[in-house]
Structures are given as C-alpha cells and as structure tokens.
User: Fold this.
Amino acid sequence: MKTKYQGLELSYQLQLLPIYKNELIRSWLVRNALYLNMKPSQLSTIIFQNTDIWKSDIDVQLSRRSIQSLLNTVEIREEDLLKHLLSSKCEHFYPHLNESKQVKWLLQIGVHQRGKKNSLQYCPACIASDKVPYFRACWRLGFLTSCHIHDICLLDSCPNCNSPIDLFRYNKTNNKHFEPLDYLGCNQCSFDLRESPRIKPSYYELEANKEHFKLLVEGHGSIGNLDFNYSHLYYDGLKRIMSFILCSKNGIELFKYIFNKYDLDDDCIRERMEVSRHSEPEHLSINIRKAGVIFSYYITRDWPIKLHQNMQEVGDY
Ligand SMILES: [Zn+2]
Ligand SMILES: [Zn+2]
Assistant:
C-alpha cells in the first residue's frame, strides 16, 4: 500500500523492530527511531501522517485515523497494536464506563502540571537485564512504586540531575548520529539510567506492591482482610484514600503522622505541602505516592479498625 505524506511516499511498509509484550507504544517508536537514526518525532510524523501526534499520549489512545495510518505504514497486525493501548487494557484498574479519554491512575508523562513536568517510572534492574531494554506499560501506573521482579524501588527521575523521564525529546547536533540505546540516557545529562541506584523498599511498600500487582494481573483477589470480585473496586477505593492523604488539605495531618511513623524521605513533607488540592495521586512524584501505598497496606490488614484508630490519634475527624 502506498502512503503519502508531505512529499514523502513509501511504496512499502516499514519493518520495525518488534514491540515487546507490555511495552509502551512510545517506547517502541523511540527505540525504532533511534535505530533508524531519526528523531522519534520524525518517525511518528511519517507513521501517523500528522506532526502533532507525538505530543499526545499515544500510549493510551489513538484515533481511528491514526491507527489506520500506522497500519498502512508499518507491518503490524491490528490486534497486536490495539492490545498495547492502555485504554484497552485498563479494565482491571479503571473500567471505561464512558467515552472519557482520561484513564485514571496513569502517570501523565510529558505533561506540564503547573510548571512541574511529570515522569515515567522505571526499574533500573529491568532495563539493565533486558536483552533489548524497553519501558513497560505498568511503569505508568500510579499505584505501583516497586518492581515485582526485582523487589526494588521504581524511580521517576534521573538520579544525577533529577530531570523527569518522558521519552519525548531527543536532540542531536548536526553531524552526530543517534546511538540505538540513546533512549536509556537522561535527555538532560545523558546519565545511563541502567546505572541508577537499586533502592530497597520498606516491608510495607514491597508487600503492598506485590498485592497491587497480583490484583492488577488477576482482576480479582484479596487485599488484607478484604475480598474483591472486581479489582477495579479496590483501586477506586484506594484512589479515594490516596487522594485524601496526599492531595486534600484535611489529609495533611494524617500524612505527617504516616511520615513520622514510617520514616519516609525528608523531602516528602515539603512536597506534600505544595500539592494543590485539585491534584490526583497520579500527578504526584513517586516519593509522595509511596506514603499512600504504604498506608493503604497498613490499614487494609484489619479494615476498618486501624484506619479509625489512626484517624482518632491524629484527631479532628
Ligand atoms: Zn525490575
Ligand atoms: Zn540527568
């Protein structure tokens, strides 16, 4: 099939490097673009026949037109493409009950939230041990903060310069070639993300993440003393609890209580005080989301007894 775009005509379909199971579409396109020594935004323009798509959240949703463009340009089966879109694989944590484009719980990468850029999470041990390193879809989920394979903390910034990881911008000076693995370097300081520190999560954080991941995969199961026939019911409740602790003005005292009790990172409190009340947990950095994940584990062991006790200890509730 012939594809035409701004004078560029492809009389064949591009054979891209294959997409991995559970890989983000953006990760797949970035890997391919750098392999072809192109800017990812250029490859995206050719594939989607639209210069703006690169700026949109291609991991989550693609219009019918964009899907058709991609199928015309790239050798991939439609069903294989569709199963990588997060909007079609979110039913275990956020069922689409309407046509809303927003999928709850997804970290918003590349989007500016009041001057603060959000970041994708990653596990340094996963990308260091992959034969071909790639970024996983589950790293965009706000209720996961540690890796279920390596039992270490996910990270959401460059440990060297603190820049967010967004898989958006790749610059090269005139004659310089891209290297195929350039996407593993921080786009500000080129620090190799595979070298990032491996940090051990606390017991609560690790156990909470194990439960969250199991529930995510199976679509039903137990959390503490609670059983869920539908996992999204748990995630809905978790969102309310995390929103209260992490985003609501009334939740600040409880957050401070959790901070003191679980010995969280010192920066947490400052960050928590700056959270705007219109924020959602998935807008927040991993440092602060950890507090919600840890507390949720603690209070679901004997729901609702500990929650009530804690609320009373903090007072005012
Ligand atoms: Zn890992
Ligand atoms: Zn950096």
Notes: The beta strands are 3-5, 8-10, 112-113, 116-117, 221-223, 226-228. Residues 1-89 form one domain. The first helix runs from residue 25 to 35. Residues 158, 160-161, 163, 186, 188-189, 191 surround zinc ion (ligand 2) (CB under 6 Å).
